Amino acid sequence: MSRRRRLQRLWDPPWLKIAGLAAAVSSVVIALLSLVGDAEGRAGVREPSPTASTRRYEPMEVISTGAGVAKPPAAMVPGRFIGTWAGVVEDEDMDTPFSVEILLRQGGLGQTVGKVRYESLKCEGVVRLQEVSVRELSVQESLTMATEQCDDDLVTLKYQANGTLYYTYGDGEGRAVLRKQGQ
Question: How far is CA 54 from the centre of its chain?
Fold first, then answer.
């Protein structure tokens, strides 16, 4: 055996190859597990800051149909949103605040899920569910009675920890804190 081969064997024993392969396999398994996450899918998910302007989407549960096919449940108005809510809207383009009352009931995406009324502006209409998550929903107004002060808008309602709804439209142009009525 040549001297070169003997030196190569000293630095390249079989156990070193096996240890390197085991380390590589372990790294791949750990990387895959971190991508997959735990049973609820939380690994690697970061909550955006409350000031972030991006929309947050909540993970949906998967319900089995029994035929081996899983499908997400229909997106419905969460129970905590159902009821009559009222507050005072401050709009950047208007000199005086105005009242809003919104009635929300059960319904799914694309369905009419309630009514909206701006009494002091003499405007009212219905709202159709556009987006929904556990803590937030968006409804599109369709005003059936309106003055020149009212427009159909996409309204976002965010459920707050204190039981109120944070109401916004027009990228924050109009905003209010709504309280549930009749409690």
Answer: 10
The model's pLDDT over 15-50, given as tens digits with 9 standing for 90+, comes to 556 766 677 666 666 665 555 554 444 444 444 444
Closest CA to 132 of 70, 63, 56: 56
CB 119 within 8 A of CB 101: yes
Look up residue 39 and give its amino acid: A
The pLDDT tens digits of the residues spanning 77-114 come to 999 999 999 999 999 989 999 999 999 999 999 999 99
The C-alpha atoms of residue 93 and residue 147 are separated, in whole angstroms, by 15
Instruction: Give yes or no for a contact between 131 and 140, defined as CB atoms under 8 angstroms apart.
Output: no
Encoded amino acid at 46, one letter? R
Show the CA angle centred on residue 44, arms to residues 40 and 45, nearest 5°: 70
